Structure of RraA-like protein:
Amino acid sequence: MTDDQLKTLSEFSTCDISDGLQNLYGIKDGGYFPNLCQRSGQEKTGSIAGKAFTVLFAHASDERPSINYIDELPSNSVLVMAYTPELQTSVAPYTYVNNAIFGGLMARRAQIQGVNGTIVFGRVRDIGEFTDLKYPVFSYGLGAAASKGVVKPVAINTTLSIATSSDTIPIDSSGQLVSKSCGKRKIAMNIDDGDYIVCDVHGVTRIPHATVDLDRLITYIKSSIKVDALVAEDILKGEPAEASKRKHRALLEKFKD
Ligand SMILES: O=C([O-])CC(=O)C(=O)O
Ligand code: NI
């Protein structure tokens, strides 16, 4: 990702990103990861963007050794931390682990290396320190206890599989109706290392780097924002929304393959 692309992504909202992924690439969930809350960094103008640097956490009994990931983080990345599937639940609170795996000292260390923010599919602590640092952190929940002896980081630069939908809700993460009779299961969405991440007040979106042409997506989103602005003007003049949308959406036809 070039500096220009990064700057442009940080000017888009997560809603803009989801519109682009849905309309240009047919990704029905719009790349949106539900249930994360923004804990800090709200004062930043624009969105938080960067390439995903992924860290996988496993139970302390996992045979893999604990690794140090916090001291070698690429600048302009977004640190993404998640658990192995058996430690995740697809209904609230989304993780079985009540300990926090990210805190103020780690935020400090990440920030000094130029990391743009942290996403934890689990719990975090020391939010007062995140706020003081103006360092953006998103998480499922909060905790007070550190992770020692309970979970440990076991892999970096790996695909993270996130359980996002409940087996009690008959709709999967891509918006398809699924049979209620298919029994217990978790429906996962992946984040690959190096995916483009954009976060804001709505939460977190992910642009899959393997399948999305970032320049094409950016060009589409710029046009889509223009269309929305034109429709907003029409609505202000008293025009009906649907007719205005039809009129201006033609601007987006050129993107259809
Ligand atoms: O001890 C931990 O797991 C994290 C923590 O509090 C910090 O980074 O300040
Ligand atoms: Ni701490």
Observations:
- The chain has a mean pLDDT of 92.
- Residues 103-105, 126 surround nickel (II) ion (ligand 2) (CB under 6 Å).
- The chain has six helices and eleven strands.
